[in-house]
Amino acid sequence: MNGIKQGAVIPVYNHGSTAEPIVAFFAERHIPVILVDDGSYLKTKAALAKIEKKYPDDVTLLTLPENRGKGAAVMTGIEMAANLGLTHVLQIDADGQHDINRAEPFFELSKEHPEALICGYPEYDATVPKNRLTGRKITNTMLVIETLSHDLKDGMCGFRVYPVESTLKIKNSLSFPRMGFDIDILVKLYWSGVPVISSPVKVTYPEGGISNFRMVHDNIEISMVHTSLFFGMLVRLPKLLAMRKRNG
Hints:
The chain has 248 residues and is an alpha/beta fold.
């Protein structure tokens, strides 16, 4: 556990009102927070500036000049984490859907397994939209094909602890900066040999919550991610079969 320094990366796109309680959770525990404004509207920019002013010792605010997508925002935050000397960061979405009380157990798992990606898998309540469940089942079936394993329990959960150094090593292999990012980076970290430990997190969809998911565009991107990963799997087939044999 020596040398481990943990923090949080929160990508934000027009979630100014829900970001503050998430930031407060970490700041009150003096856990460094990197807020990444992904080209939000002025109202959100003002809210984020107030948050940074309220927690000057614990919050670093980065502002992208235009909306580049969740993946681009997360990677920008992870690069800053490296500059700040952080070794592991919890990615948590700013929409308030995830049970933030799972942050500390995730950090503990990361301390016990510093080489691993700690990946959340959702425990939904009755608020979950049915179309999200269907899409997730398809994605998680594709993960089995793309990794030739059942090691990855969920491909789309935005609640994960990334090992910073290992994540930056695969940065240039990532192709999808928007909603396909969570799938793309998860599989490619797994391909690179990073262990993945899955842990549950409760997920709720707040009434009146803002969703940035674009039904047509993002489903097309996710389809493109799976197509790309499928052919990537074929290229890596001997290596993945050997990995599967080692893992039993």
